Amino acid sequence: MKDSSKNITSIDDYIAQFPENIQEILEQLRKTVRNSAPESEETISYQMPAFRQKGILVYFAAFKNHIGFYPTPSGIEKFRKGLSGYEVSKGTVKFPIDKPIPLDLINKIVKFRVKENSTK
Questions:
Q1: Which residue in 37, 60, 44, 45 sits closest to 118, CA to CA?
Q2: Sheet strands (E) in 1-120
Q3: What is the CA angle 106-120-87, rounded to 5?
Q4: What is the separation of C-alpha 51 from the centre of its chain, rounded to a whole number of angstroms?
Q5: How many angstroms separate the Cα of 32 from the Cα of each of 4, 90, 109?
Q6: pLDDT tens column, 64-112
Q7: How far apart are CA 25 and CA 39, in angstroms?
Q8: Which of 4, 58, 78, 79 has its CA 20 to 30 A from that of 107?
Q9: What pTM value is reported for the model?
């Protein structure tokens, strides 16, 4: 799905490389993060979309069967209970492509990360 030979320079470039159904999910996620952190900047880091505000807030990426969401280990730990229905590791959550993304939970995680970064 991802063509890493392409030089991705914006979130628009990143999203455009996927089929329409995945683009819709990625745009929903992007909009949710943007609304949760209106002062953040969009960037590409490690060839993934990321939002930065006094440091990276979150990353996300599309894969064959899931959307990877990377809110740092602290974001995972703080919301572990809400994330319990998903495959979770130290800094990653995998949201299955065939299920709705929990946008309310993402909103809370991003707001937590904004607060956390502002106290650094």
A1: 37
A2: 41-45, 48-52, 56-62, 66-70, 87-88, 93-96
A3: 30
A4: 8
A5: 25, 22, 11
A6: 999 999 999 999 999 999 999 999 999 999 999 999 999 999 999 999 9
A7: 22
A8: 4
A9: 0.92
Say which residue the tokens 């990377």 belong to.
Answer: 70
Decide the pairing of beta strands 93-96 and 66-70: antiparallel
Contact (CB, 8 A) for 78 and 110: no
Is the CA virtual torsion 6, 96, 104, 113 positive or negative?
negative
Residue 46 carries which side chain, given as an amino acid letter?
Y
Three-state SS for 40?
A: coil
User: Residues 6 or more apart from 45 whose CB is under 8 A from it?
Assistant: 52, 56, 59
